[in-house]
């Protein structure tokens, strides 16, 4: 819905009608309000001089979840809201309230795939996707990794030649596919 860029520690949100997808139930006002709120929250993060790792530590969440909260891609819960206000003291009560009361639009604009970090992550997942699926099926059975009951953490390590290397950990609950037996279906049939 928006592109967020940081230049010399100053965050800003760029909105363009060409970049904002048509979202059912989301008016351009909602998208604009969310973009403006995201900018204010990012500004509060910059003013607090916090990295996503340090913010995550204060909130008790992973660094990627902290980023999702800041970018409006996760709903702020009351227990984390108090911690967020303590960590970002310039954040307004209204923005904190809105972050708790609005349901996030968990989607992405396909334009984001043109951003090199996002594209390379996507490329790695698609390149290794078949191997990942095969290993998951071998070790767990017929099913998938949940993206809902899911944790993601991003960090770095040092390689054997002293180079900095990026480490992304996906930790999702395994969801087995089921046989859809009539006797197990508790919903009334639409044919009744």
Automatic annotation (TrEMBL):
Q: Which UniProt keywords apply?
A: Lyase
- Superkingdom of origin: Eukaryota
Q: Does the keyword Transmembrane helix apply?
A: no
UniProt keyword Lyase present: yes
InterPro entries in the cross-refs: Cro/C1-type_HTH (IPR001387), Cyanase (IPR008076), Cyanate_lyase_C (IPR003712), Cyanate_lyase_C_sf (IPR036581), CYNS_N (IPR048564), Lambda_DNA-bd_dom_sf (IPR010982)
- SMART domains for this protein: Cyanate_lyase
Which intervals hold domain Cyanate lyase C-terminal? 107-180
Q: Any idea which GO molecular function terms this record carries?
A: lyase activity
Tell me, in a sentence or two, what this protein's role is.
Answer: Catalyzes the reaction of cyanate with bicarbonate to produce ammonia and carbon dioxide.
Q: Give the matching PANTHER family.
A: CYANATE HYDRATASE
Q: What is this protein called?
A: Cyanate lyase C-terminal domain-containing protein
